[in-house]
Structure formats: structure tokens, C-alpha cells
Structure prediction request, 115 residues.
Amino acid sequence: MSELRRPASLGNLAFGLAIASVLAIAAIFALTFIADIAFGRHQQPLAFIVLFAAAVFAMPALAIAAIVSGHIARHRDRQDRNARLGLVIGYGMLAFVALLAVVSALTFISIRTPA
Prediction:
């Protein structure tokens, strides 16, 4: 006897992508901590720089993917709670990335401006 299994909903995918976007922040902090301990003020290897850049660029990409799949899932089923959670976390992460970009730009400008 075979049981019919319901396929995983798109809302679960949206929620998973949003959580992966949040975990990218943890990966960035972990990579920074490991680099500080392992390399100190010395030049960091290219592999570390590539991993760090991948985590930085994956964070907004995963948030956007969570938003898109969350909207599609909400269009299909308005009661999908995981889709709603994916949307909330995805939009929150996108706002965090935008805030981080503004703070980084202002910091860069203030460092480069002569006193």
C-alpha cells in the first residue's frame, strides 16, 4: 500500500531561504572571527576572501528568493504561515542589508574625508 504524500509547499521553501539568509550573517561573523584568530594582521588567503564575499552576496540573494517564493506561495494559499514568515524575515533581512549598506557608505565617506 502506498500512501500519497503531499509535496512540500512553496511556503516551506520561502521560510527555509529566509532562515538561510539569516544564517549567512552567522557565517560572516564566524569567518571574521576565524580570520582574526588564524591570520591576525597578516594577508588573508584568497580562499578566505572568496568565502567571505560569497556569504556577503548570498545574504541579499537568499532574502530576495525568500520574498519571491513567499509571494508566490501566498498567492496560491493565503493561509500558509511559513510563506508569511518567509516574507517577514526576507523583508527584514533586505532592510538590514540596506541599512548595512548605508552605514558602510557613511563610514567609508567619514574615513576618507580629511579632518
Observations:
- The chain has a mean pLDDT of 89.
- Residues 11-112 form one domain.
- DSSP finds three helices and no strands in the chain.
